[in-house]
Structure formats: structure tokens, C-alpha cells
């Protein structure tokens, strides 16, 4: 396997390659200081993995990875983030995985293998045949994707966001309703959509729009209690967000919101052992078709069995697993939590679970 690492300290190369050898891997790592070198590799070069930081030399890392995606669509793309890096959204469209800087061999190995496993799972014949039997799939969440692009513009104002939301009066009504709920209002009524945007915050607003567009497509989800499903989704999202720190919290919140979206598709299994593909994998396949970021797709696909990820730590799929299980009252995989050193946190997490909306009212 050939790895190209762009714009990182070449002084790490010796230790990094020794770590790969210690894992028994014959991966070849090429360190390039200039992003132009990566873009000018021979046309017939076989590259398996690209790694870049948020700033790869003179070029922003997300821009570089997006250009490399067009040249090498099969390569796994990894974006390195500083611990305090707030520019997470810039990297989600271009990267399969987000890792912390400095680059560590064991974390890169886990990332590459998990993406490969996910691709193999979602490319399975049973899943593709089941999805293929559906006449048409739920359409991509148009307003959510439009807002996501808008929020990546650092100059986007709350007025512009409110104007975009106003395209859909039903969404406006839901935003105002949520903003005036006990969870957000603090006893202060809001009737202006621009003020609601400010109060909710951009990420909570995005998830509300996503939930509204996803769970209310009238032609899908026959026999599913949509109100109960959306209530679980919102509570899972809020809990998953609290289980991770930093930028990963927002990934976990969105993946938690969408953990059950596969239940809206006909012919999927509600649990392990049932006929048909599992709803988690079917949902992840749908999100992949919509173009949602890989960490969210991965979190949804593995949330029901996070131990399948050869992970060195507790990340999105683990957080969503815990949150979804606690909200639904199903067993938590305690063996998995022991393996990632988080079992002692479980009692605290249980105390964080919100009651269903009907009980809280």
C-alpha cells in the first residue's frame, strides 16, 4: 500500500515508518513538502492513501484533498486536525477520516482499514439488491445541504441563513417551535426567525432541518411511528454530542440523529438475524448516496456493533452506539466499552439520558 503525506514534518518519517514495520505492514510512505508535487504525480501512479493537514504548505488541506479526489477517486483521504481546530466543516466533504495531529501510525492504520471495511460492507450484493428493489429512494435533504454550504462561508450572516430557511414555511414553523420549547427558550419567547437562528446556534439548526427533511418524507417509512422515531433521534443526537469533545461532538450529534434512518426503507432488518440487510447499514448506504461525510456514514453503519471497527479509541460510532442504546433502553456493548477504556463512564452517561418528549411535557 502506498501512502502520500503532504505538507507534514518529514522529520517524523523515520519513526512513522518504523511503527508501520512494527505492525508487520509493508506500506510505503512518501512525504511531500509541496502540494504541487502531489498534484503532479505520474498519471498512472497507484496511490492508496493521501494525508494532509488543514494547511498543506501554501494550499489549504481541504482544497488539496478535493483536487486529489478528482485525480484518485479510490484513494482514502485523511485530514489532520489540531486539537483546537474549529474549521471542521471545511474538511468533511473532502476527507474520509479526520485524525489528530501529529500523525500516528496506529491511528492511520485503523482509519484506512475501517474505510476499506465500510466500502466492502456497503458494496455487498445483499445490500445493493435490497436497495435496488426500492422504486425510488428518499431524496437528498435539499435545504440541509444548502444550509451546510452556506455555513461554510465565514462571511455568512444570520440574516442570510434566516432567508434561506424562509424558503420552507414548514421548516420555519418547526424552528420557531423548537426555539420556544423549554429545552431552548429559558422562558423567553421568540417569534423572529433571525433571532431563532441566533438562539439555537448553527449546528443545532442544521440538525433540526435535517431531522425535519429526513423523517417527514411522506412516501417512505410506512408502518413506522415517525413521531417516536424523531423523538428518539433528537434525544440520541443530544446525548451523543455530550459523549465526545471538540469538533467530533458535532459529527456524533449528526450521526446520532440519523442512526435509525434506515428504518424508513422497506425490506430492511430491524435487528440482527432478521431477513434483509440491517437498517443501520441500509441507512449508511443511503447517506453515502446523499453525499454526507464519511465519518457520519461510518458512525451510522457501525453504531449497532462498534466493536467491528478496529479502533484505537472511542469515536463517533461508539458515542452513537451508547447514546442510541441508552435512549432506546437496549443493551450497551460493555465488552466494547472495556476494550476502549470507557466502561467507567457508563453510569454517568446513563444519568444524562433525557426522558421521551411525552414524559418531559
UniProtKB/TrEMBL annotation:
Residues 137-306 form the HDOD domain. Pfam families: HDOD (PF08668). Signal peptide: none annotated. InterPro entries: CheY-like_superfamily (IPR011006), HDOD (IPR013976), RNase_Y/CdgJ (IPR052340), Sig_transdc_resp-reg_put (IPR014626). This is HD-like signal output (HDOD) protein. It comes from Vulcaniibacterium tengchongense. The lineage of its organism: Bacteria, Pseudomonadati, Pseudomonadota, Gammaproteobacteria, Lysobacterales.
Amino acid at each position: 500500500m502506498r501512502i502520500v503525506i503532504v505538507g507534514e514534518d518529514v522529520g517524523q518519517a523515520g519513526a512513522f515508518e518504523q511503527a508501520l514495520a512494527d505492525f508487520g505492514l509493508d506500506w510505503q510512505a512518501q512525504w511531500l513538502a509541496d502540494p504541487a508535487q502531489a498534484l503532479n504525480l505520474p498519471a498512472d501512479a497507484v496511490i492508496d492513501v493521501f494525508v494532509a493537514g488543514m494547511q498543506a504548505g501554501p494550499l489549504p488541506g481541504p482544497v488539496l484533498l478535493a483536487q486529489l479526489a478528482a485525480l484518485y477517486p479510490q484513494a482514502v483521504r485523511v485530514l489532520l486536525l489540531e486539537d483546537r481546530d474549529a474549521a471542521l466543516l471545511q474538511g468533511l466533504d473532502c476527507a474520509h477520516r479526520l485524525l489528530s495531529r501529529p500523525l500516528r501510525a496506529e491511528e492511520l492504520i485503523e482509519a484506512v482499514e475501517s474505510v476499506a471495511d465500510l466500502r466492502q460492507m456497503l458494496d455487498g450484493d445483499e445490500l445493493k439488491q435490497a436497495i435496488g428493489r426500492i422504486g425510488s429512494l428518499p431524496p437528498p435533504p435539499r435545504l440541509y445541504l444548502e444550509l451546510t454550504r452556506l455555513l461554510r462561508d465565514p462571511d455568512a450572516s444570520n440574516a442570510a441563513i434566516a432567508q434561506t430557511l424562509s424558503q420552507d414555511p414548514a421548516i420555519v414553523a418547526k424552528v420557531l417551535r423548537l426555539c420556544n420549547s423549554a429545552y431552548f427558550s429559558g422562558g423567553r419567547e421568540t417569534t423572529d426567525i433571525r433571532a431563532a437562528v441566533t438562539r439555537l446556534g448553527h449546528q443545532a439548526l442544521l440538525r433540526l432541518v435535517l431531522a425535519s427533511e429526513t423523517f417527514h418524507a411522506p412516501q417512505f417509512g410506512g408502518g413506522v411511528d415517525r413521531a417516536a422515531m424523531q423523538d428518539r433521534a433528537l434525544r440520541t443526537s443530544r446525548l451523543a454530542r455530550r459523549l465526545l469533545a471538540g469538533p467530533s461532538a458535532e459529527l456524533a450529534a449528526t450521526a446520532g440523529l440519523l442512526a435509525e434512518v434506515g428504518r424508513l426503507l422497506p425490506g430492511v432488518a430491524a435487528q440482527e438475524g432478521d431477513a434483509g440487510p440491517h437498517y443501520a447499514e441500509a441507512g449508511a448506504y443511503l447517506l453515502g448516496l446523499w453525499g454526507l461525510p464519511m465519518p457520519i456514514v461510518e458512525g451510522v453503519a457501525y453504531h449497532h456493533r462498534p466493536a467491528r471497527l478496529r479502533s484505537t479509541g472511542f469515536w463517533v460510532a461508539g458515542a452513537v452506539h451508547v447514546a442510541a442504546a441508552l435512549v432506546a433502553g437496549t443493551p450497551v456493548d460493555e465488552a466494547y466499552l472495556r476494550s476502549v477504556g470507557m466502561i467507567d463512564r457508563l453510569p454517568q452517561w446513563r444519568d444524562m439520558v433525557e426522558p421521551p418528549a411525552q414524559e418531559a411535557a
